[in-house]
């Protein structure tokens, strides 16, 4: 089966979902690489439809040139044509792109607010600062950009960060007291390299995102309280 | 977006094709990695449906837990949940497996018949034999297993080989006459390493497949004329 690598630019809106899934089931039975014996009861079971519907779908796929079909003594044999393979591939590429993007990064948007200065304090401690330099690749400006997340979708993606390993910033003790560990995710705010910092023990709830960077982001981007800012957070 | 790598074993037959495609369109708009503003007219256009249908699909996806939705002043924001991501991923994995398999090999089945001995003659010529040893990794038994393809699906996959580069076996001249080039594809017959040989100038039509191997396949597999044999042909 030669699945061409050049895109055929098939408009996904033009695809009939039911026909596409029928083609998927034929592919799973091997139809992209050999002739597949298909009995209507089997196909109906695959599709979760009646036999009548399964039969109709096969005829439609044939009429549209997505499969070739031949009827033998033993039953019908079906192969997926190049045109059919292109249809499968168009969805595959769209899915692949969306999934790969999502595996790499998420986007969280929130409103700038003036925080308690807690993050600024932590970032200025050498116990954290030196690790940030080493693990994130920049010397952090002693201050954080605080974003308040208001939309449920941003809270959802913020919550996902809790379940990701991120980059560990180890806790430490300076003799007087101990400081808990944190995790960081590399990030971008506009075009500025930054990081999101999740401190283990914090006074903030999970509706807050603390962003650090080598520069004062508020100043560099001319931000004021209430401005909305999107942060692209690297998951890998 | 954490698309878990362990399979959720979602039964593809249980997936509603229309809902799945709606989810795909949301993923293409970024719903796996951020909150997406969705207007019903836009979604209807994506899906090629009426606005009423598009609205109903969104509500169904929400009711089934595949998306989270919130209505704001500006419109509705949608994110794809872990459960929704799993549903997208189940289809992605099934497609990926079918496509990868098809990119690697195809299966052609035919009936054993006794040929003209033309293939055996060619294979015994040093001009071909030494190239076969070098490029396919075995010293060919001086004879070919000839298969007659009877099913349209096998002819279809046989035809695909014409459009593939394969492994070039160069033509040569021995002073008396010239011999044309051929192409070969590595193959397996049962568990025996073999190859399919497509000779440029042959007396055979495209309903014939000639298989060579380091052993006499007919003998090794106890084959007789009329027996059906499947050959797994490597495309890469």
Give the topology, please.
2 copies of one chain form a homodimer.
Chain A: H1 17-28, E1 36-38, H2 40-47, H3 51-63, E2 67-71, E3 76-80, H4 82-104, E4 105-113, H5 118-124, H6 126-136, E5 145-148, H7 152-162, E6 167-169, E7 172-173, E8 178-179, E9 182-189, E10 192-199, E11 208-212, H8 217-220, E12 228-234
Helix pairs in contact in A: 1-3, 2-3
Describe the structure.
Two copies of one chain form a homodimer. Chain A is of the alpha+beta class. Chain A folds into two domains: 12-80, Orthogonal Bundle (Arc Repressor Mutant, subunit A), CATH 1.10.10; 104-234, Elongation Factor Tu (Ef-tu), domain 3. Chain A contains eight helices and twelve strands. Chain A has a six-stranded antiparallel β-barrel. The longest helix of chain A is centred in the middle third of the chain and has 23 residues, at 82-104. Chains A and B meet through helix 1, helix 2, strand 3, helix 4 and strand 4 of A and helix 1, helix 2, strand 3, helix 4 and strand 4 of B.
């Amino acid at each position: 089966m030669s699945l061409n690598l050049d895109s055929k630019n098939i408009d996904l809106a033009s695809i009939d979902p039911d026909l596409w899934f029928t083609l998927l089931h034929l592919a799973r039975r091997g139809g992209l690489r050999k002739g597949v014996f298909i009995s209507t009861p089997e196909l109906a079971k695959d599709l979760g439809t009646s036999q009548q519907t399964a039969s109709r779908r096969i005829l439609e796929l044939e009429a549209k040139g997505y499969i070739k079909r031949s009827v033998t003594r033993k039953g019908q044999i079906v192969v997926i044509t190049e045109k059919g393979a292109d249809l499968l591939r168009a969805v595959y590429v769209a899915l692949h792109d969306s999934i790969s993007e999502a595996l790499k990064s998420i986007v969280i948007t929130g409103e700038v607010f003036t925080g308690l200065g807690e993050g600024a304090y932590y970032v200025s401690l050498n116990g954290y600062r030196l690790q940030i330099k080493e693990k994130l690749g920049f010397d952090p400006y002693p201050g954080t950009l605080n974003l308040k997340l208001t939309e449920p979708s941003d809270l959802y993606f913020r919550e996902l960060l809790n379940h990701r390993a991120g980059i560990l910033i180890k806790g430490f003790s300076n003799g007087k007291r101990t400081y808990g560990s944190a995790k960081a995710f590399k990030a971008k705010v506009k075009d500025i390299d930054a990081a999101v910092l999740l401190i283990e023990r914090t006074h903030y709830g999970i509706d807050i995102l603390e962003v650090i960077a080598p520069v004062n982001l508020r100043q560099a981007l001319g931000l004021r309280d209430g401005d909305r800012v999107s942060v692209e957070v690297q998951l890998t």
